[in-house]
Design a protein that fits this description.
Among the domains are: 129 residues, N Utilization Substance Protein A, Chain:P, domain 4 (2-Layer Sandwich); 68 residues, OB fold (Dihydrolipoamide Acetyltransferase, E2P) (Beta Barrel); 72 residues, K homology (KH) domain (GMP Synthetase, Chain A, domain 3). 40% of the residues lie in helices and 26% in strands.
């Protein structure tokens, strides 16, 4: 088999892998040089000539003519008699170039060449995929559900690239069927071995930010800036937006008439409740807005410890805390301050920490998670509501209520 025909048989990978001819030739030269090293011990005295247009390749071995019997390295030296078989007028000390046919390397070497070529092309392919998706990190991407596993969904894009969306990167209400088109962001791309691992996420705050860019022209054009996004995927989100143009109402532009603009985003996120808030550098005002829909009476800020003590009317407390404590938790994440809610006229109230000798700290922490950090704030709640909002048993909550009641009956 001639070199050209052999290379053409190798080149069948080109169309499958969408690899250009020049790159394929570079990979071929690398593979052939490795084969020459294995067979002859060195490839330094070989010239490999590649014609990318024709896909042809020639290999020439260069040796020095020495006297018969003086050959010490048959790879780099050739005896006078052997040289004169190639060309009669060769003399001692001259260079001899002799073409090496690939078929002369032997069947095993050719099989090894083929395997190495496949490996190199796959490596090149994977490197290109890694670079391509690394540049797409943080961007929205669409792929088709290929396989549904217990802990992840495997997706394929139009080029057949595999993406993984683990369970914790999905919105809890997400339900997928094979063949569904799914949108998410490329959260991370890593090389595991030689294969790129592409992680897609629908739960990341960046996904919501990018949806704002896609769906709201003023955000896409840079007239409105998304300052920060915090989410409890599938439940609630808060988005702080700002505009450097006083003529633009950033919240109104993002929400649209009767919620027309934001409706598509809410639907994409499984009816996630999205609060859009005007950003401001005025910390008091920003915390007040972050606690919406609750109306704040007053705020005391401890900048050193990043805490804010917020006083509200009793009827506003549940709004500030929100279902499952979501509202106050997201307000804290959005502003970067831990928010303590106090009721107006609650001077006689007692902090739960005062009961640490009777109530375990982990139980107090469970109440604090949903914004209840005083005795009266717990006693004002319905027992069944507390059971549903905390990870505490009904009996445990009842014991706490009994202890707190005793404090005020004394």
């Amino acid at each position: 088999m001639e070199n050209l025909a052999l290379i053409d048989s190798f080149s069948e990978f080109k169309d499958d892998k969408l690899i250009d001819r020049v790159t394929l030739m570079a990979i071929l030269e690398d593979v052939f040089r490795n084969a020459l090293k294995k067979k002859f011990g060195s490839d330094e005295n070989f010239d490999i000539i590649i014609n990318p247009d024709k896909g042809d390749l020639e290999i020439w071995r260069n040796r020095i003519v020495v006297a018969d019997g003086d050959v010490e390295d048959p790879n780099e030296e050739i005896s006078l008699t052997e040289a004169q078989k190639i060309e009669e007028d060769f003399e001692i000390g001259e260079d001899v170039s002799e073409e090496v046919k690939l078929i002369d390397l032997g069947r095993r070497s050719i099989l090894a060449l083929r395997q190495n070529l496949i490996a190199k092309i796959h490596e090149h392919d994977n490197t290109n995929i890694y670079k391509q998706f690394k540049e797409l990190e943080g961007e929205i991407y669409t792929a088709e559900v290929h396989h549904i596993r217990h802990r992840a969904v495997i997706l394929l894009d139009d080029e057949g690239n595999e993406l993984i969306m683990p369970k914790d990167r999905q919105i809890p209400s997400d339900f997928f069927r094979k063949g569904d088109n799914v949108r998410g962001i490329i959260e991370s791309v890593e090389l595991k071995g030689n294969k790129p691992a592409i992680i897609m996420s629908r739960a990341h705050p960046m996904f919501l930010e990018k949806l704002f860019e896609q769906e709201i022209p003023e955000v896409f054009d840079g007239l409105i800036t998304v300052k920060k996004v915090v989410r409890i995927p599938g439940e609630k989100a808060k988005v702080a937006v700002d505009s450097y143009d006083d003529r633009i109402d950033p919240v109104g532009a993002c929400v649209g008439m009767k919620g027309s603009r934001i409706h598509g985003i809410v639907r994409e996120l499984g009816n996630e409740n999205i609060d859009v808030i005007n950003f401001t550098n005025n910390l008091n005002l920003f915390i007040t807005r972050a606690l919406s829909p609750a109306r704040v009476t007053s705020i005391a800020i401890d900048e050193e410890n990043k805490r804010a003590e917020v006083i509200l009317k009793p009827e506003e407390v549940s709004k500030a805390i929100g279902r499952g404590g979501h509202n106050i938790r997201l307000a804290g994440q959005l502003t970067g301050y831990e928010i303590d809610v106090l009721r107006e006229g609650a001077e006689e109230d007692v902090e739960l920490t005062e009961f640490s000798d009777e109530i375990d700290q982990w139980i107090i922490d469970e109440f604090r998670k949903i914004g209840l950090d005083t005795a009266k704030s717990v006693l004002e709640q319905d027992l069944k509501d507390l059971v549903s909002r905390t990870d505490l048993e009904e009996e445990t909550i009842q014991e706490v209520i009994n202890i707190l009641k005793e404090e005020f009956e004394e």
